[in-house]
């Protein structure tokens, strides 16, 4: 909780849920509850995707653009969210997005990215978990972009999750069936021989044809989906690159982006875990 509060106060961006106030208890003797006052939002993408409200292509593009904008900001601060899912993406009646719930987020020293010992796979709700989290110890901020791809796919899929795995093994099987059997080069980042052998033993598949799976989806959305759900994290779009993808490009303006970057510079959150009990990787 302390980590989330600290991050919420440090990270200031229009597409992140702001902490407006903390409701302090009248007495700290026996203190057990903390109430956080935040921006008022009407619903979240989990509920919206399952409602009767139609999500038009322009709405979908606007949602995605705002999510990428939020993540480009947090990733520039070397902060990974690590729990992107529809329920953690809040939306109001104007279509404005706020990414919420930084309870699993952490600052990552850029010099330590990719070091096995510094990371744990016990992050991200399973259905939105990138394959490298199940197969490899090391991972990067690309796990957040995979999760965004899962969110996009869910919105295109009528609110049904793309990869509702029963367990880790089933989760990976569903992913491979969807994206296709990865090549040797696409599994080079997986250090575990056992994990590579598991992938090799799966029935070979070319994956699904996105246009057949989502016939009503805008073509630009399908191209974006494919670039987010790349098995190899090195092949995935970054949040900054995704802002310029054709599907969301109508919302991108170079001058506005520069002004926003000046107005909301990424903060230094390197000491966010100092003094946080259990504040490990």
TrEMBL record:
Residues 1-248 form the Protein kinase domain. GO terms for molecular function: ATP binding; protein serine/threonine kinase activity. Pfam families: Pkinase. The keyword Hydrolase does not apply. It comes from the Eukaryota. SUPFAM superfamilies: Protein kinase-like (PK-like). Transmembrane segments: none annotated. SMART domains: S_TKc (SM00220). InterPro entries: Kinase-like_dom_sf, MAPK, Prot_kinase_dom, Ser/Thr_kinase_AS. Keywords: ATP-binding, Kinase, Nucleotide-binding, Serine/threonine-protein kinase, Transferase. This is Protein kinase domain-containing protein. It comes from Porphyra umbilicalis.
